[in-house]
Design a protein that fits this description.
The protein is of the alpha/beta class. It has helices at 16-21, 35-43, 63-73, 87-91, 114-122, 135-146, and strands spanning 2-8, 26-30, 50-54, 57-59, 79-80, 95-98, 107-110, 149-152, 158-160.
C-alpha cells in the first residue's frame, strides 16, 4: 500500500510517530501556506490506490496491518478512518455514508484513480472561491457528483492530535475523539 503524508513547513510538526509505523510514507510538504495546493499535490502523487494522512494524525497500534485489512474489505470504495460523529459509536461498525456528507481528511483511503480524478474535478469545482481550504468539501462534492458513497470505518484507526489548526486558527484545538483506543 502507498501512504502519502501531508505536512507543512510552518509550525513544529513531529512526524516521528507516523514515520515509526510508516517509514516508507511519501511526504508532501506545504511551503506556501496553501493547504488546498498541498492537498492537490498529495492526491495527484499517484494514480494507484493510496492512504492519505494529515501530519496531525495519531495512529492506532499495528496501524498498517489494521488499515490494510480494512481496505481489503472495500478496495473500490473511499474509506474515512476518523470522525467525530456520534453515529459512529451508535452503529458500532463500518457503514456506508452518502458522498455529500463526507467530512475530514485526517486519514482516508483513495481507491485507484480517485485522487487524480478529484484533483481534475478541482479545476471546475464551484466551491474554490468560497472554501479555499475546504479540501474535504471538494471530496464531498466530487463523491456527490459521481453518486458515490464512502465507508466510515469504525472503530477509528486514527485520532486527531490536540493542537491549533495551521489552516484556520479559529478551529477548536480539541478536534479529537476522546473515546479513541489505540
Amino acid at each position: 500500500m502507498k501512504y502519502v503524508l501531508m505536512t507543512t513547513a510552518f509550525g513544529n510538526r513531529d512526524l516521528s510517530g507516523i514515520l515509526a509505523q510508516i517509514p516508507n510514507a511519501f511526504i508532501v510538504t506545504d511551503y506556501r501556506h496553501d493547504a488546498m495546493g498541498n492537498f492537490l499535490n498529495a492526491i495527484s502523487y499517484t494514480d494507484d490506490a493510496f492512504v492519505l494522512l494529515e501530519d496531525d494524525a495519531e495512529l492506532c497500534n499495528d496501524f498498517c496491518s489494521r488499515i490494510e485489512d480494512a481496505i481489503s474489505q472495500y478496495p473500490d470504495t473511499m474509506i474515512n478512518f476518523f470522525s467525530l460523529r456520534k453515529i459512529d459509536y451508535e452503529k458500532g461498525e463500518p457503514f456506508h455514508v452518502s458522498g455529500g456528507r463526507y467530512l475530514g481528511n485526517v486519514c482516508v483511503y483513495f481507491p485507484k484513480g480517485f485522487g487524480v480524478a478529484i484533483a481534475d474535478f478541482y479545476k471546475e469545482w464551484s466551491g474554490k472561491i468560497e472554501n479555499p481550504t475546504g479540501n474535504d468539501l471538494l471530496v464531498a462534492d466530487w463523491l456527490k457528483s459521481k453518486g458515490l458513497k464512502y465507508i466510515q470505518w469504525f472503530p477509528h484507526l486514527v485520532n486527531h492530535k490536540v493542537g491549533k489548526s495551521l489552516i484556520d486558527p479559529r478551529r477548536s484545538s480539541k478536534r479529537t475523539d476522546n473515546r479513541f483506543q489505540k
